[in-house]
Specification:
The complex is a heterodimer of chains A (255) and B (291).
Chain A: H1 4-10, E1 14-23, E2 26-36, E3 41-45, H2 52-59, E4 67-72, E5 75-76, H3 84-89, E6 91-94, H4 106-116, H5 122-135, H6 151-163, E7 169-173, H7 181-196, E8 201-204, H8 208-214, E9 217-222, E10 225-230, H9 232-237, H10 242-251
Parallel strand pairs in A: 3-8, 3-9, 6-7, 7-8
Antiparallel strand pairs in A: 1-2, 1-4, 4-5, 9-10
Chain B: H1 3-12, H2 17-53, H3 58-65, H4 68-108, H5 115-130, H6 133-147, H7 156-181, H8 185-193, H9 198-228, H10 240-251, H11 255-290
Helix pairs in contact in B: 4-5, 4-7, 4-10, 4-11, 5-7, 6-7, 7-9, 8-9, 9-11, 10-11
Classes of the chains: A alpha/beta (255), B mainly alpha (291).
């Protein structure tokens, strides 16, 4: 064995095979195959109810899957005997509705996991939190509570909170969908920066222009299946599937 | 995605070997947790019964509290008395719901014309939540008949029931009010925006949602009311507790109290379980919405 780093580079960060998820009789995800390499930025697109959010929730082990396998860093994490917390320590997730803890200040929201889960001291955690908040233009918000912040600021805090644990993979679930249009830009700029600095991300989004710019690969989900996937130029400009074309026509009327 | 298509897919799918293996593991985990919980419950029960039966006073205790002949002898009288508790509970429950909702609505009224009603409602809840129920029963049960007012019933059972209604009505009013207050103002806004009047908004939009939300705490209050019907024995109403006390006074054996306790448990447990079930169902529904 040449050491874990060499090993890790040779295998994908995340590998999903034949993933299936149902709610009762309803098949939400069907036969999903997906590979995420280090530094990939993969955009999941598709209409509401196509399974994008559920897929992200399954990857963070927030939902029990009905079939298939999820491998993170070469280890099968869909095993019921796996330590789920250990898996989630490696993954950061940001939700559509921010889900900040309303009873904690911004700083405490950000330092909660580093201190309680990753064992950082308060000083270390706060220093790191201040650095991140500073980088994302939130330096003077640290002492405030989430309800004093605008939606865009809250979502940026949520991003900082997810990044504070230095995750190997970041899952973003339609993080701009609940924001005012003028605030979307702020958040997307940050995600763009993260992508540029090599953060591995898997994101569900409705922002097609953004996906076209940032994604290394785009997956189009329809009815719980990945109908089409490829580099953004190809998926957006010359989609193979009629269903993809339909979807893009509806969402990009000017194109 | 048509339902037919998804049904086709559901039919075509066969679980993979890995999934079958995973299911087996989950099943084993489930069985293990059932085994652990069952085992722990049994151990706790055995330890507890050993401690109780091993106590120095156990033989004497069994004689006075767990005597089978006394239980059998007191049973018919207690059963008769218990019917009074059950009937009292049924009648009081309906009255309490009506009174509680009326008081809660009075407290949320905003019109200046209703100010006296609002004040009366506040005074009522403050007063009757503050006075211990047993005192209310004693005061009303013995006091009002003593007034010898024309046209009012002098029956202690009636006045004990009134005392229960007044006492619990105050609690239930607060529960209803909490439910009404918990409905987001945007619901009123959208009702008013549709042209509904404020009372209409309350009646058709706020109250139905608020009431639904507080059903579990309401049921909890009713479990408590079921037991508190026993308090009417304080004013010599021949209910189950009074019957038991009557028997113990003549026979110097306390077994009838245990019998009464069993009656009450048999009455309250189904309602308590129903409350749990309802609460869980609503929690699940709310969670499903939060996904």
């Amino acid at each position: 064995m040449t050491g874990p780093t060499a090993d890790r580079q040779s295998q994908p960060l995340l590998r999903v095979a034949n993933l299936r998820k149902t709610y009762g009789d309803r098949v939400v995800l069907d036969d999903i195959d997906l590979t995420v390499e280090q530094h990939d930025v993969i955009c999941l697109i598709g209409s509401s109810g196509s399974g994008k959010s559920t897929l992200l929730r399954c990857l963070d082990l927030l939902e029990e899957i009905d079939d298939g396998e999820i491998e993170l860093e070469g280890r099968e994490v869909s095993d019921p005997l796996i330590d789920q917390r250990a898996v989630r320590r490696r993954i950061g997730m940001v939700f559509q509705a921010y889900n900040l803890f309303p009873h904690l200040s911004v700083l405490d929201n950000v330092t909660l996991a580093p201190r309680r889960v990753h064992g950082l001291s308060r000083t270390e955690a706060e220093q790191q939190a201040h650095e991140l908040l500073d980088r994302f233009g939130l330096a003077d918000q640290a002492a405030k509570h989430p309800d004093r912040l605008s939606g865009g600021q809250q979502q940026r805090v949520a991003l900082v909170r997810a990044l504070a644990t230095r995750p190997a993979l970041l899952l973003l679930d339609e993080i701009t969908a609940a924001l005012d249009p003028e605030l979307v830009g702020d958040v997307l700029t940050i995600v763009r920066d993260l992508a540029a600095s090599g953060t591995t991300m898997l994101l569900a989004t409705h922002e097609m222009a953004f996906a076209r710019d940032v994604a290394t690969r785009v997956c189009f989900l329809d009815g719980g299946r990945i109908l089409e996937s490829g580099p953004p130029e190809q998926v957006f400009s010359e989609p193979r599937e009629e269903r993809t074309r339909q979807f893009l026509r509806r969402i990009l009327p000017e194109a | 995605m048509g339902p037919d298509r998804s049904a086709d897919r559901a039919a075509a799918w066969q679980p993979s070997d890995r999934e079958l293996e995973r299911r087996a593991v989950r099943r084993r985990q489930r069985l293990r947790s059932i085994a652990i919980s069952t085992g722990l419950i049994l151990v706790a029960a055995v330890v507890l019964s050993l401690v109780v039966t091993g106590s120095p006073g156990w033989p004497r205790f069994r004689e006075t509290f767990l005597s089978w002949p006394d239980a059998k002898a007191s049973f018919p009288q207690i059963l008769d008395g218990f019917w009074i508790n059950v009937k009292l509970f049924m009648v009081c429950e309906v009255c309490i719901l009506v009174l509680g909702l009326a008081v809660a609505l009075a407290r949320t009224a905003r019109s200046p014309w209703l100010a006296p009603v609002r004040v009366a409602a506040v005074v009522y809840t403050d007063l009757f939540r503050g006075v211990p129920t047993i005192l209310l029963i004693l005061m009303l049960g013995f006091g009002v008949p003593a007034l010898r007012l024309q046209g009012l019933p002098t029956d202690e059972l009636f006045w004990a029931g009134v005392a229960l209604v007044l006492s619990y009505g105050a609690y239930v009013a607060e529960v209803f009010r909490a439910g009404i207050d918990s409905i987001h103002p945007s619901q009123v806004s959208s009702a008013v925006a549709l042209g509904l009047s404020r009372p209409q908004a309350l009646r058709f939009v706020v109250v139905p949602q608020g009431v639904r939300r507080v059903v579990p705490p309401l049921l909890n209050d009713f479990v408590s009311l079921q037991k508190d019907t026993a308090l009417v024995s304080a004013v010599a109403v021949f209910d189950a507790v009074f019957a038991a006390r009557d028997y113990t006074a003549f026979n110097f054996n306390y077994t009838p109290y245990v019998v009464v306790a069993c009656f009450f448990v048999a009455l309250t447990v189904p309602l308590a379980r129903f409350t749990d079930w309802l609460q869980r169902r609503w929690l699940e529904r709310e969670r499903a919405g939060a996904l």
